[in-house]
Amino acid sequence: METPRGKKVVIVGGGIAGLSAAFYTKKIFEEQQVPVEISIVEKSDRLGGKIQTLHHEGFIIEKGPDSFLARKQPIMELTKELGLEDELVGTNPNAKSTFILNKGKLHPMPPGLVLGIPTKVVPFIKTGLISPLGKIRAAMDLVLPKRTGGDESLGHFIERRLGKEVLENITEPLLSGIYSGDARFLSINSTFPQFKLMEEKHRSLIKGIMTSHHSPQPIKGLPEIAKKSMFLSYKNGLSTLVDRLEDVLRPIEIINGQGVEKLTKCEKGYKLILENGTELQADGLILAMPTSKAATLLPGFKWLEEIPYVSVANIALAFKKEDVRFPLSGSGFLVPRKEGRTMTACTWLSSKWLHTTPSGNVLFRVFVGRAGSEGWLKLSDQELLSAVSKDLHDMMGITAKPFFSEITRCLDSMPQYPVGHKEQLKMIREQLGINMPGIFLCGAGYDGVGIPDCIQQGKKAAMETFDYLTAL
Ligand SMILES: Cc1cc2nc3c(=O)[nH]c(=O)nc-3n(C[C@H](O)[C@H](O)[C@H](O)COP(=O)(O)OP(=O)(O)OC[C@H]3O[C@@H](n4cnc5c(N)ncnc54)[C@H](O)[C@@H]3O)c2cc1C
To answer: How far is the centre of ligand 1, averaged over its atoms, from the C-alpha of 29 (Å)?
Structure first.
């Protein structure tokens, strides 16, 4: 008897969102015993998108993301499903403090700060990062009335509650590490909706955070390591996740080195044309690519083109231990915009992530570029190295040259969710459902930039595809 032909699902984009979408599509259809054919189409020659680990003479160097938040269920669930729990590695418990540059000097970040919101009174009073007036202004959060209403920028929100100093000296540099963004542009509802809810519920942000800290929601099923370290990675780097996904997905068709150039609706679903002219048919389609690239396939959806992306670079620098005299007693430092430096942050990898560096060496990862500061794009690699070496000299007194460096330019890599992003996205998805049913969007440009958010979106797109195809 002839086996029934499965529905054809094509996933465009082989980053973590696309790979997760493929993994969960396969799993859901198999569990429900519904036949399916899955293809992944990836423009570049390798899978993983932003995730890319370089192994060099015993160093483990991340060219994109370097870790994920341990309390995020989607990544912990996927790690478990892929049998990677024993590969997890946490940060060095003795390197917890982070520093912030203020007027050219590194200050320890006071304990108990959540994105600049003080939850411990004494360390906040003592910190040299905020002036006495700035501290009084921050404390006014306790008495200021709440504001109800729609979305606003994260910068406006923090300044309104805690004042300009907290925003510029603490929140903005911390944000650079997550969104490389300009807080005055980013939507609070799409980045930190929990803060807005806290204001609605408790009026004061400080009170809201303190209440949630005193009664944290226990997360069930987390491995021991996730209870000890806020951030996790894998012993051999984040590419472990990509490689394992590729292994378990391999029976399905993976087309590398070919982008999708054109998408048309046809009688039975969709037709895709690849760069080399190959045609693919799809009953269901998951677009797991940057929004501007999705917009080229969906010409009716102009708004997708308008979500800005910022370019950043990260530079790994390896030194001999004896060449770095500065005490590396923490995980690194952040550089506020107003300090006018080339670098936006520096992670002391050899202190924070012990597995990354062979003994006798020091490894740093320096970050460059954020919204509104993209002048570095004009610099050659040599000029970029000189500029960050000057910063390292001025901040940490390092005069030696690194014996190894690796520059990664991540062009148009960090989506910046504008105010109103959530509402626009809802409209786009509704229109898509009416005009181009069976197409689902996922990835960093939509509902969260972190790796766990992208996994969650891939899973949701897989479930939506299953529901759509089985209801036909
Ligand atoms: C420098 C940096 C540091 C970061 N650090 C962290 C961190 O520490 N922790 C964390 O959780 N997150 C971090 N992030 C964010 C996170 O890495 C990304 O948001 C996430 O990896 C994006 O995954 P994605 O699948 O949505 O997109 P991508 O990884 O961008 O994948 C999209 C894929 O689509 C492909 N594509 C594009 N056009 C086409 C086409 N026409 N046809 C076929 N394929 C196409 C691309 O080649 C790409 O492989 C960081 C990001 C950067 C840039």
So the answer is: 26
Residue with structure tokens 């996790």? 232
Q: Which helix (DSSP H) or strand (DSSP E) does residue 191 occupy?
A: helix 188-191
pLDDT tens column, 404-440: 999 999 999 999 999 999 999 999 999 999 999 999 9
Pocket of ligand 1 contains residue 110 by CB under 6 Å: no
Answer whether residue 389 shows pLDDT above 80: yes
- Output the CA angle 427-432-433, nearest 5 degrees: 100
Using the mean position of ligand 1's atoms as its centre, give its distance from the Cα of residue 406 in Å. 19
Atom 35 of ligand 1, residue of closest alpha carbon: 13
Q: Give me ligand 1 centre to Cα 288, in Å.
A: 9
**Confidence at 219, pLDDT banded by 50, 70, 90:** low
CA atoms of 14 and 32, how far apart (whole Å): 25
Tell me, what amino acid is at 356? T
Cα 368–Cα 370–Cα 375 angle in degrees, nearest 5: 70
- pLDDT score, position 87: 97
- Its CATH class, for the domain covering 7-45+245-307+417-470, is alpha beta
With the most atoms of ligand 1 within 8 angstroms of its CB, the residue from 272, 287, 289 to mutate is 289
Instruction: Give me ligand 1 centre to Cα 353, in Å.
Output: 22
All structural domains of the chain with their residue ranges: 7-45+245-307+417-470, 53-94+309-415, 118-214
CA of 50 to the centre of ligand 1 (A): 4
CA distance 301 to 244: 34
Measured distance CA(287)–CA(431) in Å, rounded: 15
Mean pLDDT of 274-298: 97
Cβ burial 373-389 (10 Å sphere, 16+ → b, else e): beebeebeeeebbebbb
* Residue 64 Cβ < 6 Å to ligand 1: yes
| Cβ 17 under 6 angstroms from ligand 1 | yes
Domain spanning 53-94+309-415, CATH architecture: Alpha-Beta Complex (3.90)
CA-closest candidate to residue 312, choices 377, 363, 237, 238: 377
The rounded Å distance from CA 124 to ligand 1 centre is: 36
Ligand 1 contacts CB of residue 65 (under 6 A): yes
Whether residue 66 has its Cβ less than 6 Å from ligand 1:
yes
- pLDDT tens-digit series, residues 144-178: 999 988 999 999 999 999 999 999 998 888 877 78
Q: Residue 20 contacts by C-beta under 8 Å, 6 or more apart in sequence? A: 74, 78, 245, 454, 455, 457, 458, 459, 462
Q: What is the CATH number of domain 118-214?
A: 1.10.3110.10
Indicate the top mutation candidate among 447, 451, 456 to test ligand 1's pocket, ranked by most ligand atoms within 8 A of CB. 451
